[in-house]
């Protein structure tokens, strides 16, 4: 297998394997000249108005339908809608919607905390570190999961049953995503009540109380207890599963970066990310996250421009010998499962992953 060669200091103190610092600047200039960083106010205002109206309509229909098992369909619809609203909050948090940082912050708070029940402060704290160092040991919180091990080197499980589960953890990865909705809510609560600096703490606490207490209260006021519990279970399960299935293919199974490795910005973002090939319908379903490479290189690029930027960035990467990973949706899930199983078996090669084995070259040697 060909190993990616990270930038490391030489004996003379000069980095080996480092490319021209102007490589990303050239790409950024090309993207700006193409007009792909311009705001898309019409696109985003349509969503900012449409989603709240759709949510209000869904809740109104929920009350009118009343106590019936058919409400489980309403729960499924709300789960899908909450996920789409979360994607829009993600765009606002990355400053894709407005020029004003305050406008983006408050939109993120309203969409995330009030409508979805996810803390914007928690997301910002966690997601910023992920973007700074994707897949880097000790820096990226997205590879430090409490249940599934996705980074090599973790202590092997003790006991025959736990060892078997660890060796087949890729199979359990997707069912565990059904609990992701609860985890997202709980993580937000822990963040807003924890010590440490958090902007707009009391605003977040107030909005989360309205959402996380108000919504279940409405459910139990309209539905009988049995149906209400089933309703919340369906809503939380589908919401968590949808969120997890949208984020999982982006980096899982891509190279893990050692703690002491230093990479230039272009390679740090491209080599650790994977795009998912598909139609515009997939773009909508995944909230633009299927263009993970473009998003990591240009986080503030409006979502509708990611598809247009992809061929430009792919061509640029090819011309500079930077591997540009792109696969189909189901192939990406197969890669994730296979990789997580291999990690569970105790493989320790931090640059080993199924997708990379299909390539004859990741980056030229120094």
From TrEMBL:
It holds the Pfam family FA_desaturase. Residues 68-326 form the Fatty acid desaturase domain. It comes from the Bacteria. The keyword Membrane applies. The chain crosses the membrane at residues 44-66, 72-93, 105-123, 171-193, 205-223, 229-249. It comes from Leucobacter muris. Residues 1-23 are annotated as: Disordered. CDD domains: Delta6-FADS-like. This is Acyl-CoA desaturase. InterPro entries: FA_desaturase_dom, Fatty_acid_desaturase. Keywords: Membrane, Transmembrane, Transmembrane helix.
